[in-house]
Specification:
Layout: E1 7-8, E2 22-27, E3 35-42, E4 48-56, E5 59-68, E6 71-72, E7 76-81, E8 93-97, E9 100-108, E10 116-123, E11 134-135, E12 146-152, E13 158-164, H1 166-170, E14 177-184, E15 190-200, E16 207-210, E17 215-220, E18 230-236, E19 239-240, E20 244-245, E21 262-266, E22 269-278, E23 281-289, E24 300-304, E25 307-315, E26 321-328, E27 333-340, E28 346-355, E29 365-369, E30 372-379, E31 384-392
């Protein structure tokens, strides 16, 4: 394998040299032109993976690659189709756990713009061969299903959560979208599934993470009066808790903002970030928990003003929390990172790259390896997925 040299991004991508101790290094991307919808993932073994979609002449292909020795392995294809539903805020994803690979994508189920099923596929030989495609939303209702989050479990099992339209369709479009969850065995069959919340925001992404007690899921809820704040459900002793609002933002909006929350967890340390808009002022918020998401500390406002959200979050090895988002104004758009200690103390903020706030820029994705952050996004000018590595000179003193 050839070593691919790193290209250090210009100091234009830092707020200024004295303000940030972070260093941004652009990595060669394994994705070709016409690529988008990238996601990053770090396995339990510490391996970093990138997945993405390449589209051409109406056909979509889902690929993934592993970062090894400062370069990417030859990409592997998971599946392809000319009937996939591709949406900037609803992306396929890939998880790897040793030899096991699990992936999902959305497939159009009938004529109509918003009618599609969630498909899952599995491999037990590191992606050399994949199973048939399983339908996640087993109810058989033809409607809008998606916003999937995947999580590997012990014993070859997997967990998925998604937004499900069965109630909406059955009630003639007046019923709410519901949040569902399911566990799979090693061959991809559903062991058990649950309704986790019977009324949620229609098209905001979900996210999930693993604590010592079990999986936790965050999502944008929806009240009868269209308050769309962030809620959490937790699995404790095999049972799911009732939904709890993480913070009463009081954001009332008639339409879906297509801006979901992000969560990460290590042991019982949980970090959640999200976009909210109150009094016409957008802000990115952060809350931290030390008891598996049962309770959270005070609200931390990461930034407000010229932003359009699309957050992601990681707890790095040192215990620091890193939040990413899009900052946007009429002149330009930037991909941003902020770093906090787990006590909530601000550590650093920096610009990763210049971008555009178009929807096809997608949702930037971050993952961590030790105390490094990797970030991927779609570059509009080149119509291609890009990847960068972010490192800091020193770790925070406030660790887990």
């Amino acid at each position: 394998m050839k070593n691919i040299s790193y290209l250090v991004i210009s100091v234009l991508f830092c707020i200024n040299a004295s303000a940030s101790t972070g260093k941004v290094t652009e990595l060669h991307s394994p994705a070709k032109e016409n690529s988008s919808l990238s996601r990053l993932f770090t396995s339990a073994q510490g391996d970093v993976y990138l997945s993405w979609v390449e589209s051409e002449e109406g056909k979509a292909q889902l690929f993934y690659s592993q970062l090894a020795d400062a370069s990417w392995t030859k990409e592997k294809i998971i599946g392809s189709g000319d009937d996939w539903m591709l949406h900037w805020a609803d992306f396929p994803s890939v998880l790897i756990d040793e030899q096991r690979v699990m992936a999902h994508y959305s497939q159009k189920s009938q004529a109509g713009k918003y009618s599609f099923d969630v498909k899952t596929v599995f491999s037990h030989d590191k992606g050399n061969n994949f199973s048939k495609a399983y339908t996640l939303n087993l109810e058989g209702v033809k409607g809008e299903n998606g916003m999937v989050s995947l999580l590997p479990l012990e014993g070859g099992r997997s967990f998925a959560t998604w937004l499900d339209s069965r109630t909406t369709v059955k009630e003639g479009g007046t019923g709410g979208m519901s949040l569902r969850g399911a566990t799979f065995n090693s061959t991809g069959d559903i062991i058990k599934q649950w309704e986790l919340d019977n009324r949620t925001c229609d098209c905001c992404s979900t996210d999930t993470a693993m604590t010592k007690q079990g999986p936790v899921v965050v999502y944008r809820d929806r009240s009868d009066t269209d308050i769309r704040d962030i809620s959490i459900v937790r699995q404790v002793n095999g049972e799911w808790t009732a939904p709890v609002t993480i913070h009463n933002d009081g954001w009332q909006i008639k339409g879906c903002p297509m801006n979901g929350p992000a969560i990460d967890a290590k042991d019982n340390y949980v970090a959640v970030s999200w976009l909210t808009i109150k009094n016409d002022v957008p802000s990115i918020n952060l809350k931290l928990s030390k008891d598996g998401g049962k309770t959270f500390g005070d609200l931390i406002e990461v930034v407000n003003g010229d932003i359009n959200g699309r957050v992601d979050i990681e707890i790095i090895e040192s215990g620091a929390v890193v939040v990413s988002w899009f900052a946007s104004n009429p002149e330009n758009t930037k991909l941003m990172l902020a770093k906090y200690s787990f006590s909530g103390k601000f550590i650093d903020k920096l610009v990763v790259a210049e971008s555009k706030s178009l929807r096809r820029s997608g949702l930037p994705s971050i993952t961590s390896h030790e105390n490094q952050i990797y970030m991927s996004w779609t570059d509009i000018d080149t119509n291609k997925v890009k990847v960068a590595k972010i490192t800091w000179d020193s770790a925070p003193s406030d660790i887990l």
